[in-house]
Amino acid sequence: MITIDRTDLAFQLHDVLGVARLAEQARHTDYDREAIDGVLDTAERIAVDHFLPHAAQLDEHEPEFVDGKVEMDAAVADALKHYREAGFFGAAFDAEWGGMQMPETVRLATSFMFMMANVGTSSYPFLTTGAANLIASFGSDEQKERFLRPMVEGRFFGTMCLSEPQAGSSLTDISTTAEPREDGSYSITGRKMWISGGDQEISENIVHMVLAKIPGGPAGVKGISLFIVPKFLVGDDGAVTQRNGVVLAGLNHKMGYRGTTNTLLNFGEDSPCIGYLVGEPHHGLSYMFQMMNEARIGVGLGAVALGAAGYRASLAYARERPQGRHPDSKDPESPQVLLIEHADIRRLLLAQKAAVEGALALSLYSADLVDRIRTEEDEDSRRQNELLLDLITPIAKSWPSEYCLEANKHAIQVLGGYGYTRDYPVERLYRDNRLNPIHEGTHGIQAIDLLGRKVLQAQGAGVKTLAGRILADIREAHAAEGLAEHAEALANHLSETIATTGKLVHAVAEAPRAGLANASVYLDMLGHVVIAWMWLRQAVVAARKKSERDGDANFLDGKLAACRYFFAFELPKTSAQRALLDRLDDTTITMRPDWF
Amino acid sequence: MITIDRTDLAFQLHDVLGVARLAEQARHTDYDREAIDGVLDTAERIAVDHFLPHAAQLDEHEPEFVDGKVEMDAAVADALKHYREAGFFGAAFDAEWGGMQMPETVRLATSFMFMMANVGTSSYPFLTTGAANLIASFGSDEQKERFLRPMVEGRFFGTMCLSEPQAGSSLTDISTTAEPREDGSYSITGRKMWISGGDQEISENIVHMVLAKIPGGPAGVKGISLFIVPKFLVGDDGAVTQRNGVVLAGLNHKMGYRGTTNTLLNFGEDSPCIGYLVGEPHHGLSYMFQMMNEARIGVGLGAVALGAAGYRASLAYARERPQGRHPDSKDPESPQVLLIEHADIRRLLLAQKAAVEGALALSLYSADLVDRIRTEEDEDSRRQNELLLDLITPIAKSWPSEYCLEANKHAIQVLGGYGYTRDYPVERLYRDNRLNPIHEGTHGIQAIDLLGRKVLQAQGAGVKTLAGRILADIREAHAAEGLAEHAEALANHLSETIATTGKLVHAVAEAPRAGLANASVYLDMLGHVVIAWMWLRQAVVAARKKSERDGDANFLDGKLAACRYFFAFELPKTSAQRALLDRLDDTTITMRPDWF
């Protein structure tokens, strides 16, 4: 039932973003359009042949904790063997360390297909990539040789060890410690919670990236350092040697994402646990933040992929299943019409299409910024893109997590009673997607990150850049066939949004708690404006291609209709949100705990 | 973690609705306030002691189909034994047939507690009540003696057999047939899908209420008749005799509601299946509709109960769990604050409180209308209440199904990663509640029922009655302390809603499909206006009690704050919806299937 749609991916990558231009950059000379499409073909084939088939069974039979080890479906290891052999573990890494130097946009597009097919199995390489990125950015050459290279080769997997049982979102309260040892390494002691991929028997080794405090360092987040803690120690020759003292203490059993082991890990409890400092002491959080930004875009993309899988499954169902008649035709003898003929089913499909393709555009736009930052020579321009990427990262994480989960809810609704059973994939996708508003920072955390930090950065330069880019696209839309009304609407919403932002910046400066009280509403509101922009960008390209009779007319009409849907059904919702934000509504902070 | 809150229930039943007044009616003389509270005490005790403890294990180990029979957790039968012994199977039925003649409001309040504790186990008696209602309303005295009495006693359970594999929402397309037999009974042949409680080994017998067509009858829904089809035939002495030809063909495996068997049943496939006509031939659908209205209010109430369970669980967690610090306090050495101190956590709790208590008010208001209709002497007044109940039924079904599901989403969010695990009840409640927008008529069906039928009934008399009642409460609110602003806001939203309704009525008359294209948006919009009214009614009472220093001041302040939340965060959303409805937006119907 889940099918991968390459048409939209091609439209977004090539027609909207023009990623093949990156082949002009020294880093990406191998990635012309043909090569990109070849990479996507390979990813699609592996996703469909090796990831998709075991997705349902992996959900039904989740990994188990047996005799201190993780037992799981052998199909996971088999799928990852194919993934490894195609080189995807090293997709975006430097050739120097065995990587393929793929543009981030292209790597993201491959991830999208793997996650659509099977988010549980996909998590292992995606966590590995995140962990490897940290070593690539901040590790020593010796650490890179010992740990990064085998991760790029897909022989070692990686994890992120941030949360602890008593400190979820609040990293300042972590209590894992790192005591210096004589040889320059550290003894790690503590417990980490919610560690995805924290143990398994698939890879030769697991490289945990662990946040811990070196005793005597500054209090709070300023005293956090980053460590490499391997499951097995690695000799100078790169061979795996003895077991390190990081021990699986238990598996968490979740509503969804059941294919990914999620663990409680003990460090240094029964036997010594050795860790290696990455970069400077006490800089762990800033290193981790860089990784977290990428991880957050990845979480958003995962939400999009789950939304897309549900959209394709429910669309296929709506095109096949006869049900009832139109309200205009009351003759019970007339044949039933297909589900897709009903207005409300189309609304449910349009809502999914608008959410999924709008959010995918934002994920890819974010990746395109990463590519520009990596390859751009002009300092100012790079700085602008960095600030813009910082600003939209919480949106790229949260908006899909909210609205593609909503899309999964709609997918179930299209299938009705069948959608609620475990015989169809849509209920699983809905369960899986419920994780995304939680991990890598909840909505509430993203909201405070956006309004309490990103909006204020560099005197609001990120917001100015965002407004400038949106205005440029509004100008293009004004010139395009049939898009003037949308352009006008977005211009109005944008200018009101800027005004609201100004008020809130002032309020946050005066009293952070009161100013941030409705940060989540702000995140949601700005998210809708940004997604409307993403739709207008797509519509401009679709209108142009349509007028040039370039491409499938049905597909292009669908793009324009989905854009229209977003502007008719979604964007207008932001007005009520801005009214609430503008008056600094204090309902939530004046409500007293004992009034509940 | 799930606790039952009696304070709000008492406030709603006694202070807002004044249900004890019903003791003045001949039917309910036994139900003064003390007796009502005694019934609620008994229900609470059984819910907490016998329903709640096995809710999680029943979800984890769902009923299985073994050797043609259903095997399930023995705790279900035990819980229902206590339920039966307390007389709850006969709660609302006439004393003549062994019932307790309980007011519907009170019966609903008991259901609320049972469903909060364990929705899977609760389904068996609730389906039995629905089926028994049909016999009580339309069956012959002989049918009542043979089937209703043992259902009222809780010895026989009941089911509703409407849907078929090829016809879910579309009853006109059912193909189950009923051939007349010589003795006046019928031979039933066909397959019924999604039958909750369709088989089990708990009750002595199962009484299926089956929709089928008598050959030669009118086409479509006008040819549907209603039959009693018992699992075991029943002798003249009331004793269960031989097995009837209704056979369990399989169990459906769902995302939630796992404790309730959900079945595919075959009728008359291998052995003859005897059914007994209820009422007149070809009137089955109108009989079933009466039952469906009650069932729909019951579905809405189930959604509220699940929402309430999640709200209480997440509230308890937020009051216990330390996490982070306020944005105003950056000192990492300061102690962590409780989750409930964070503005965004309060928003998630307020959203739940506003949804759950607002929706409960609507469920109870609907039940109060049932009580008024049953006991009222004045014909005009009864007719008005009937039309109002008809009008609000799709809202009482759908609004809680949408927004209390959203509440369950928020409950998970409050618990963060813990909420996503199966160690806490909130993920189960969320899975359970996802059924409610589907069964007993999907949102889309409810929306068409509302705008295409209920709004038009009796020249819009239902809408006029609704507006009249809301305006009366607005006048009260104007006179109350601190509620003038809310009263004014609701008055404005109401008058705009009436204007929009007029436009849509006109449009539906001109072209049903176009007029009904956004019926779901109308349902959602009118639902918000109705819930705002429910909150204003509660606020009027809370303000009065507060000024009279009558009752717990914290509770009353909480009511006023939740009302304020609804008027600040929720009601304003309807403006954008009305704008879309007013312009008869045709995005969904102009989108062509091949454009997706």
TrEMBL record, chains A, B:
The keyword Flavoprotein applies. Residues 39-154 form the Acyl-CoA dehydrogenase/oxidase N-terminal domain. InterPro entries: Acyl-CoA_dh-like_C_dom, Acyl-CoA_DH_CS, Acyl-CoA_Oxase/DH_mid-dom, Acyl-CoA_Oxase/DH_mid-dom_sf, AcylCo_DH-like_C, AcylCo_DH/oxidase_C, AcylCoA_DH/ox_N, AcylCoA_DH/ox_N_sf. Residues 160-266 form the Acyl-CoA oxidase/dehydrogenase middle domain. PROSITE patterns: ACYL_COA_DH_2. Pfam families: Acyl-CoA_dh_1, Acyl-CoA_dh_C, Acyl-CoA_dh_M, Acyl-CoA_dh_N. Residues 283-448 form the Acyl-CoA dehydrogenase/oxidase C-terminal domain. Residues 471-591 form the Acetyl-CoA dehydrogenase-like C-terminal domain. Keywords: FAD, Flavoprotein, Oxidoreductase. GO terms for molecular function: acyl-CoA dehydrogenase activity; flavin adenine dinucleotide binding. The keyword Ribosomal protein does not apply. Its cofactor is FAD. It comes from the Bacteria. Belongs to the acyl-CoA dehydrogenase family. This is Acyl-CoA dehydrogenase. It comes from Nitratireductor mangrovi. The lineage of its organism: Bacteria, Pseudomonadati, Pseudomonadota, Alphaproteobacteria, Hyphomicrobiales.
